[in-house]
Amino acid sequence: MALVRTATGAMPSHSFRELAMLPRPRLFVKKRGTRRTGAPWVGMVAEGFLSAGLLTVGGLGLYWLIDHVASVADAGRWPWFAMLIPIALIVYGAIALVGVLWHSAASTERRAAVVQMATDWELPGADARPARPVLPTVPPIDAVIDSAGVRLAYRLPIDAAPGWVSFTMAAVCLTWNTLVAVFVLKVISLHRDGHPNWLLTWLMLPFVMAGVWTLVALVRQVLLSTAIGTTLIEVSQHPFYLGGTFHGFVSQTGRLRVRWLQVQLVCEEQAIYQQGTDTRRATSRVYRAVLLSQRKFEIEPQRAFEASFDLTLPDSAMHSFASPHNAVMWSLLVCGRLARWGSFERRFPIYVYPLRVTALPPSAPVTLAGA
Amino acid sequence: MTTPPIIRIVLDSPSGHYRPGDRLAGRFLVEGTQMRTVRSAELSVLWYTAGKGEEDFAVHHFERLVDDVAKPLDLRVPHRFSTLLPPSPLSYDGQIVKVCWCVRVRLFMPHVQEAAAELPFRLGSVATASGVAADESEPLP
Fold this sequence. Notes:
By secondary structure, chain A is an alpha+beta fold. Helix content of chain A is about 40%, strand content about 30%.
């Protein structure tokens, strides 16, 4: 059964009553996420006028500069450099105008099909056939299998997110404390000169405390990263496929008293969406299986914790999926609680294919007929 | 006022369930006794995402039929389509991410801006996802 949906009908003519009932054009419209209260064609027309305006201004500017060079005997070099400005306007305006016209003339599906066809074109010199099977919307596994393991076939790379947290914390700490230090030095010099500014001194106090807090948080983060030691995960095969059983190996170094430690197989959905003018990211965990669980043991620097485990992927689960705003991500999680350092979690992304690699049907490119 | 046309899409497989690599075939037509003037018709086999995130979509198969003086476009006659389905993405009904496959027909007419109809189908047999409690992992002391 077909669902019929009709877009806004553009009538050939309106009666006076119909015209009187039309909503008044609004100067200000409310943006609700990606939806707007105004008509979309108004924005498109405005964008077209803006692009055409840029094109016209650029054309006039270029004409004036060429005329100036032609008419003045010793015009110098500046008109040639200044031509970059109108040329930039012309290029930008022309691209934007073509974009608007293409957007208004072709349907969403037709535009997507043409873009897809263009991305499927083989560039001269580029290897047309990748070394490994490539599936639409399934992330390539090259980043995961470039490191060979010692016990098993592949050593998984750790998720870089905690490293970025440390880097961001360091950047914030450095910037904040540098700015605060400038003011603190000024306050100290005033005190030294015998002209203390007590209002400024007391106002500086919360800023100094915030700086100390960022320093403490950074030191704790660095200690946590270094003291826990290295976590390694190796797997027998990659990519994984649904319904398959694989072997894994985990190693944890450091000087630690572990209250509990687990290796988990998790699947999370991730959605990126607009809320007002903010871009937000939502995550939902949809699958978790504990592959290994140990309680109350110690790790010595000379004797790392090592254990093997098996993992079986459910055959009716979703494969790894990545599109610009949505994703389904599988990963192996090493998490636990330590006596001095509290909870910790380290993530190793894995890629799950919909079916065994050798049994993949050919990945057909997008087909266009009469487009 | 011009009424929107009723577009009918029919798949050869009545269940609407397909496996990766299967051939999806069917036909579409516009119901009615009188021939409508249609400038062009577009048929797409595509997937799109639904749920909390912004919509992503990709077209797997696309056909465009254009009305021509030599060959007028009569959509009362069923138009057949056929394509090999890709290995991914599979249809998925998750918590905040959903992947939906459909056959979509869009008609462009002189007096009604456009009319569209779509027929969903499933690719693969991925089960509906359920959430996991946040504190389920920590073992009891």
